[in-house]
Structure formats: structure tokens, C-alpha cells
């Protein structure tokens, strides 16, 4: 129950309580002034004000010394405890991530979970063994409300329609590739917009709003793709492409994951280097200075940078014998 009277406290100069405790401890105006780095007249003025406010002398002269009144004696212990609690309340405590035992909640789509989560878990085990990572799949439109409500600590994904004031940082940029099976069709060495549009497409909602980037890109070049089928499962793509003459346009961050399940697939990067999907890290501004969230964000950023390097190495690898992308070996995937 909150029985704090803010109006009463506003009329009370809390700094005078520090002076009172020092006076009751030292029983001397001059010694109190020295401890508080104040002039003796200022301390005497505060003591006079406190005597009037409490209707008690508090300190009485007895011979050459000062003695406490009964009220002052009763105030000394609780006042000291209260000031000590206030000091501890505002004291900045050392942060030791290895001693933290807590669950952190992170929202990101399945594709990024598959690409980023294994390395993230390994890093957490090494640096913060007491942290438990709870990952949720969440639509991009729901993320801002979830951050505001405290349902999640941060989110990773593609967020083209943010409307609030969430803090955001791009942690990696992913270009797009066309996945296909060489037994079903062939693609030119350079994939222009017209070449991408000519092949039939298998679309997956697994990639969320990134599909809109591809359609906008094709429209800017006067092209439109034909979608043969749409599937909610990314893992369905390899089996379809092995039997159907079609392509699936996906962010390159997913390419190694898909090829891991179907080594026979080939990939071909889309030529336009400006066609990229920015993957962002989002968090609520109230956690800007929170040491736990600062640690988590930095860990995510560093692991995303390593993932970006691994993807660049994968894409820059040697082409296959047909000169159209390459087939991923177990080590490359």
C-alpha cells in the first residue's frame, strides 16, 4: 500500500535530514560544518529551521558540550538507516554478466533463427552461462507493441513499416539469390530483372515482407514474376525445386540453410547489388542504458557481423562446373 504523502514531502527539505543526522552524530555545529563542507552559519540556520519544524531543541548545550533531546535520541537510529538505504538505492552497482540468472526474450523469424541462433547460443554459454534465451516468432507489425508491453526484450528482422519510437540498428544486409535445380532449368550467368521474371517462381511466406522488395524491384524494371505456388514452409522449397522447373528468390542468408537440406540445388545471385534486405535489431529506448540489454545487443551485433562474413565467403566461393552458382558441399553449408 502506498501511503506516501508527496505534498508533505515537498515541504520537507530532504537535504536538511542529512544535516540533522550529521549534527546528531557529531553533536557539534562546527564539526558538522566541516563534514558537510558548509559554513557554520548555514548549519546553524538549518538547525534553527529544524527546531521550529519539529518543535524541539534537538541539541541542547550542557556545560561545554551538546546533548541530544529525547526526540533527537529517537531519531538518530532510524534516520541513519533511512539515509543509508537512500544511498544504496541510488548507488551504481557493478555489473557481472556471469553472475546473472535471467531469461531474455528475443523475437525473430524462423529463417534468422536458423542462421543466427546456433552461434548466439554458443556465445551465451561461454560469456553468460546463467542466461536463458527465449526466442519467439512474431509478425513484424506486432513487434513494437510487444517491446512497449515488455513481452520481449528485443527483436531481429526486417521492419519496413515501423511507426513508433523503437531504437533500431542494422546488423546485416542480405542480398538475394535465386535457388533452382540444374536438372530442371538453367539460368544465365548474370541474373538481370528480366531473367529473374522469366522463370516461374515458388514463393514462401516464410520470408515475411521481404517478398515485397522483389516485386517492387521487378516493377521498377517493367517486369512481373509468375508465381506457380506459395508455401508457408521454407523446408518445402528444396523438394519442390528438385521436381519443378522454377526458382525461389530468397535472401542470401537463407541460401546455405536451404542447400544444407538439398545439396543438389544451385544458387545464382541477382546482379543488382542495390537489391538488399536490411536486417535490424530493435529495442525499447527505456533499455538504452540497461547493462544486461547492452550486453545482449552487443553480442547479437557481433554474431551478426560474423554471419555476414560467412555469407560473403560462401557467395564468393568458386562456381560449379556449369558456371552457374555452385552446389554446396557439407563443409560449405
From TrEMBL:
InterPro entries in alphabetical order: LysR-type_TF (IPR050389), LysR_HTH_N (IPR000847), LysR_subst-bd (IPR005119), WH-like_DNA-bd_sf (IPR036388), WH_DNA-bd_sf (IPR036390), YidZ_PBP2 (IPR037402)
Keyword annotations of the record: DNA-binding, Transcription, Transcription regulation
Domain HTH lysR-type: 12-69
Name of a matching Pfam family: HTH_1
One Gene Ontology term of the molecular function aspect: DNA-binding transcription factor activity
Tree of life domain: Bacteria
Similarity comment text for this entry: Belongs to the LysR transcriptional regulatory family.
Protein name: LysR family transcriptional regulator
Amino acid at each position: 500500500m502506498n501511503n506516501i504523502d508527496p505534498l508533505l514531502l515537498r515541504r520537507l527539505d530532504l537535504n536538511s535530514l542529512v544535516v540533522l543526522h550529521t549534527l546528531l552524530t557529531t553533536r557539534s555545529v562546527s564539526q558538522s560544518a566541516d563534514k558537510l563542507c558548509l559554513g557554520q552559519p548555514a548549519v546553524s540556520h538549518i538547525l534553527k529551521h529544524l527546531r521550529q519544524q519539529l518543535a524541539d531543541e534537538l541539541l541542547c548545550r550542557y556545560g561545554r558540550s551538546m546533548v541530544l533531546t529525547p526526540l533527537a535520541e529517537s531519531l538518530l537510529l532510524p534516520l541513519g538507516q533511512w539515509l543509508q538505504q537512500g544511498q544504496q538505492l541510488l548507488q551504481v552497482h557493478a555489473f557481472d554478466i556471469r553472475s546473472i540468472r535471467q531469461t531474455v526474450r528475443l523475437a525473430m523469424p524462423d529463417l534468422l533463427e536458423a542462421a543466427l541462433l546456433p552461434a548466439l547460443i554458443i556465445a551465451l554459454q561461454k560469456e553468460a552461462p546463467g542466461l536463458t534465451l527465449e526466442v519467439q516468432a512474431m509478425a513484424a507489425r506486432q513487434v513494437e507493441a510487444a517491446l512497449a508491453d515488455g513481452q520481449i526484450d528485443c527483436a531481429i528482422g526486417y521492419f519496413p513499416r515501423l511507426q513508433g519510437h523503437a531504437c533500431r540498428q542494422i546488423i546485416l544486409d542480405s542480398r538475394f539469390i535465386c535457388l533452382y535445380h540444374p536438372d530442371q532449368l538453367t539460368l544465365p550467368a548474370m541474373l538481370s530483372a528480366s531473367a529473374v521474371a522469366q522463370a516461374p517462381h515458388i514463393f514462401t511466406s516464410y520470408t515475411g515482407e521481404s517478398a515485397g522488395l522483389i516485386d517492387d524491384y521487378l516493377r521498377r524494371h517493367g517486369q512481373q514474376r509468375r508465381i506457380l505456388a506459395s508455401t508457408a514452409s521454407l523446408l518445402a522449397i528444396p523438394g519442390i525445386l528438385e521436381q519443378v522447373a522454377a526458382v525461389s528468390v530468397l535472401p542470401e542468408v537463407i541460401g546455405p540453410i536451404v542447400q544444407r537440406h538439398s545439396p543438389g540445388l544451385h544458387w545464382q545471385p541477382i546482379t543488382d547489388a542495390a537489391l538488399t534486405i536490411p536486417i535490424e535489431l530493435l529495442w525499447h529506448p527505456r533499455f538504452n542504458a540497461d547493462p544486461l540489454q547492452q550486453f545482449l545487443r552487443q553480442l547479437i551485433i557481433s554474431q551478426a557481423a560474423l554471419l555476414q562474413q560467412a555469407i560473403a565467403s560462401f557467395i564468393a566461393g568458386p562456381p560449379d562446373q556449369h558456371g552457374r552458382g555452385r552446389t554446396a558441399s557439407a563443409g560449405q553449408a
